[in-house]
Amino acid sequence: MSEQDYDYRSMWEGLDMDVEAHDGLLEAVGQMYSSMYLTQENRPASTAYLDGVATNLHSGRIRELVDPQGDGSPRPKKVIGSFCLYVPEEIITAAGAVEVGLCAGADWAPAEAEKHVPRNTCPLIKGFMGFKLGRVCPYIESADLVVGENTCDGKKKAYEQFGKLKNTFVIDVPHVRTDETRQMWRNELRRLAARIEQETGQKITAESLRAAIKLANDKRRALQRLSATRAADPTPISGLDSLLTVQAAFMDDSARLTGAINEMAAECEGRVKDGEGVAPKGAKRILYTGTPMAVPNWKLFNMIEKAGAVVVGEEYCTGSRYYKDLVPETGATVDEMLDDIADRYLNIQCAIFTPNHGREEDVVRMAKELHADGIIDCALQFCTIYEQESFGMEEAAEKAGIPFMHITTDYSGQDEGQLKTRVEAFIEML
Fold first, then answer.
1. Parallel, antiparallel or unpaired: strands 285-290 and 310-315
2. Could you say which residues of the chain have pLDDT below 70?
């Protein structure tokens, strides 16, 4: 059945979604995308792929997951959902399933969410609870299993409530790095592998895990290649488009997206040679760090770039942490490869760790490599760990001689006027 003739409303109804409410969500996100993304000037032509991703995020991509033949036949692969970078896609892929990131980037049904989580919890947690209760996220509804992770205290307790609404399995992420916690984390990922194998009925083999590692690494290598072009002045691609590229990496088909990213990287490399950019040469360059931005949380990048600056790098979970490190491709056995995967993921510089000087070092290094004029550090409201880390981050930036600004915000537009004033003043000061 052709894409044009496919009945997506029936597909959403089959997932037990609130289709009318979902229509309202799609309309709002579509308007937001048009005003933020399609008004950008001089975008690389290859970013048209991102427009297609955005258009098909709740339609064509979901059909690929649940009804690729268009005839209602049983779905070919299990869908495993997650909210965090610490859930290894390699393990899920090797067991014959598909990992997808779940909706958490907007306010939805907050009154219902607050029946399950406190009012003063972070917007991301309240968001994923609201999306589930409101039945408007096809990724949540199509997931056969959600893998949670005990990162922050808010998520840890929220998963207890979320698990009453959805089949959920939680892994425990260490908060310190020692030989003992490394072994504990390796054991956790073996426990996860066994649970995913149980869900899919497919055993992870050395061959399947090796192929899954290469698939994920190829995507990371493509993102590294694209990121490297942003050191140029003028920078060839906007922070908004770079953000969406990594957001897509949690939802889109990995092999297809990797090809698209390499095409973007090749075009951007050509633009660098030609001195062509999305902002004028000399535009102020911002490095972003802080809490992750799930779709459709684009407001801060939009604000920065509409103010005349350009975001040239991102140190956070929907940025460089996703692609900075590769998993070694030399493991011979499943056990060796699982250890390699565990060690790679334990090196992600999340604010849950104490001490966490590695994140400060990464931010300063990236700022220098990408020739950033300033650093903007952002925490979602009530995110204690990122709010606390902002003090050390500011000290590290000051020591390196890089201007720094910390922002606290949420998903609403209520603070946009105040934020706009602060962002514009910071850029002017640069």
1. parallel
2. 1-2
